[in-house]
Amino acid sequence: MVVPATLVQTVVSAYGQSPRAYHGADHIVEVLAQWRSVAAGPGWQQPRETWLALLFHDAVYEAGRRDNEAMSAALARHELEAHLEKLGIDIERVCTLIELTARHGRLGLADVDSDAALMLDCDMAILGASEERFDAYDAAIAEEYRDVLPAWMFRFNRRRFLKHLLGLDRIFLSDFFHERLDAPARANLRRAIGRGRTALAAGAGR
User: Fold this and answer.
1) What does pTM read for this prediction?
2) Pick from 86, 192, 78: which is nearest to 129 by CA?
3) Are 101 and 69 in contact (CB under 8 A)?
4) What domains are defined for the chain?
5) Which DSSP letter does residue 3 get?
6) What residues contact 180, with CB distance under 8 A and at least 6 apart?
7) What pLDDT, in 10s, does the model give residues 84-108?
């Protein structure tokens, strides 16, 4: 799919806004690489819609806000209606997929179809990355919240979220990602939770 230069500029500008230690252009490059792995594997029912959803899903991001996904979906709707409406893209579907990313860890197999499961897993695949890459991601999330929450509160909330993910029967909703990444993801989560426990204990001693 050919993306107009004006739309590309909007996306580049959005992901170039700071501070984005993790949710920037490199993250989008990674999730779109995961999109291609799905395309070469089980395939997509709606390839254009899922690609665009991943492209825009973090276009609006401010650590700690609860409306990032809704705002990203609104931006996607505006840009797609302005530049790609004549291509027959299901813009409503794109927006729905973007808004689903606000519910990571709270959706089950019965809540999503195959494309939604795969798209969400593309975004969560970082959990099953190498130890080095996962640790860089974990540190980058902490950096994004450095001026948003006190360090102890961030560590407490982060550890609670990671423990929730570890307690899920399935971290990844699709078989494609579950079979390849569940084991390394659980190992990464256990290490991060252990670090969080140590940091909280150290903080409590001050």
Assistant:
1) 0.94
2) 192
3) yes
4) 5-204 (1.10.1300.10)
5) P
6) 128
7) 988 999 999 999 999 999 999 999 9
